[in-house]
Amino acid sequence: MERRQEIDGGRPVRTWFNRAAAPALPDAVYRDLVSTLFTMTAPIAGFGILYALVGSLIYIKWHDGWIAALTGIAIAVTIGRVLLIRAYHRAGGADQDVARLGRWEGRYAILTYAFALLIAALNLCVLMAHEPLVHLATVSLVFTFGAGIVSRNAGRPTLCAISVSLAVLPVAFAMFVHAASDDGERLHTEFFTLEALLLITVGLMSLASARHLYGASVEHLTAKHDLGKLARFDPLTGLPNRLLLRESFQAKLKSAHATSQLAIHYLDLDGFKAINDQYGHPVGDRMLVEVADRLASAIRTQDVAARLGGDEFLLIQSHVHHADQAELLARRVIRQLSEPYVIDGVAMRISVSIGIALTPEHGLDMERLMGCADAALYRSKAKGKAQVQFCGPEDVQDEGRAVA
């Protein structure tokens, strides 16, 4: 059974230009794929410079206003692509929410498509003249662009397909038309037809490569994130384990306001051992899963529930302005976890004891806070079942005996 809290994410991702290629991706995989689009400033700037050099040489040779205009627009689009990458990183990069990442991807795609059309337009202008060296330079831009798109953007196959198509198809079509024109040069028709077919073939091969690389990338990233989840989530309940708990604590501690605290709730189930002994471990495991479900429903989305092991759990409560708020949550958890559990038609009851430590009153170190809350939990246990106690001065002094 898999249960994901807000800290993991797992929503399907669909954007207006990747529906066919990637109808559903986990958030983490989608973030990684999109982030690769915005790590290629040098190749984008370099190719823009290459286009500008080719366009400038053709203009110097022909003094054609259309060539000058296309070159100027290509320079502007290249600057726009570089500025877009910088703006993306200033806005938070891959840490932004999925909807915003989709919008950034859309902007990136539009500028990429615009540049592909500029490459095609330059080739269409050059086809009007029979100058092999000039033609070779502009056609080389098409091949270079296609290879670069596949190597940089294979993680977004629809973007690759549209970009390559916009750069290749108009040029190939113009070559077919030019091949059919009346020209006295020997084998004129055959060579231009062959060149058009070569462009289409290379384009199709590029798309096939992009499809293969996309599949391999998704498989690799999915496996990487699955392994990451196994390392950070309890396999039985799906709750975060100690590793992810510490990571979450550090993140929440950094974002905590000066006027708010974090509350660490250390939980230990009352009566669980008797259930385990009487009904067996499979029933005990099912009860632990139900406990995890109840904990997840008792807290807010900005809070974290984790399993430490056995029948011990821990909650991180954010935005606590007064100790009473922490106690209210603890009482709510005690009430919900004390409701009957029906497993295989048998009603069973357990309860929970809780110890609470607060930041910064009881420290800012996770181990220290856990030790303090665990010491308070000992006092809760000593008072009977379903009790809650706050960390006190005696717990801070005696926290070394607590199990962190």
Task: Tell me what the structure shows.
- With 404 residues, this protein is α+β, with helices and mostly antiparallel strands.
- The protein folds into two domains: 205 residues; 160 residues, Reverse transcriptase/Diguanylate cyclase domain (Alpha-Beta Plaits).
- Helix content is 63%, strand content 10%.
- The chain is built from 13 helices and seven strands.
- The strands form two sheets. A five-stranded mixed sheet has the order 2-3-1-6-7, sandwiched between helices. It has a two-stranded antiparallel sheet with strand order 4-5.
- A hairpin with a 2-residue loop joins strand 2 and strand 3.
- Helix 2 runs antiparallel to helix 5 and helix 4 packs parallel to helix 6.
- The longest helix is centred in the middle third of the chain and has 45 residues.
Question: Would you kindly provide a brief summary of this structure?
Answer:
The chain is of the alpha+beta class. It is built from 13 helices and seven strands.
How many extended strands?
7
Number of helices: 13
Q: Which regions are unreliable across 5 or more consecutive residues at pLDDT < 50?
A: 1-23, 398-404
- Assign the structural class, choosing from mainly alpha, mainly beta, alpha/beta, alpha+beta, or little secondary structure: alpha+beta
Distance between the termini: 27 Å
Gyration radius, to the nearest Å? 31 Å
The helical percent reads: 55-70%
> Helix-strand pattern, N to C?
HHHHHHHHEHHEEHEEEHEH
